[in-house]
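Most newcomers find our protein records easier to grasp once they have seen one. A record pairs a protein's sequence with a compact description of its fold. An example says more than a description, so a record of this kind follows:
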Amino acid sequence: MYQQKAQILSNSLMGPSYYRISLKCDKGFKDAVPGQFVTLGFTELTGRVLRRPFSIHRIITEGGTVTGIDILYKVVGDCTASLAGLQQGGELDILGPIGNSFPVSDGFQKGFMIAGGIGTAPLVFLAMYLKDKGADLTGFSLFSGGKSKEDLLCIDEFASLNMNIHTVTEDGSAGEKGLVTDHLDAAIRKKKPDVIYACGPMGMLKAVARIAEARNTPCHVSIETVMACGMGACLGCAVETRQDQDTYPHVCIDGPVFNSKDLKL
């Protein structure tokens, strides 16, 4: 884990309220793995002391050397609004990479990735990582869900990796109408995958976990939560487990990726 000043290479609008910022980071990211995250400092921008967590969305390379990362984010408050206003050439205080990763295996020949809105961010990194490791992603499917078509992110990037794409919106503005978890359940009934990876709103993750358990399918979820310190000191990101009611893992140091069967969702 390294703290450094990262130069802003670009900060582009991806859709209503969604942005992708590219950061030049000189240290620490050559061994980053999918699921890990960074925290950004906003004291100089907003006066807010607490850092904010963001998933690593993509790795930037130049001539085979890792030179930085991309972060996909949604404007939801003062800090992300300030982030959206930053221009190329500026700097951000960044700490990372932090946390664990999605488990991968050569035995996973068929997998489902479930993305809810901004939960798409770490799954793009995961898909690209698998492709770089030589995985055949024709056996993998993306289930991308959102309230409307504006929440369906990075579809072309997943499609370029030869994944099967399923899009679902609650208002029916794109893809199938309904909840993405309903379509996941139907797909599993037809043919069970080797593994499920998911990131998105907690309600979605709970539904995914229930479906995976009912179908006896390994499921790994990336938890999105508020973090005050990112180091396990503040106890603000504790999650409840099934095994030990007196033990509360922390998303920042024990996660953000968990086996869904271990959590009390």
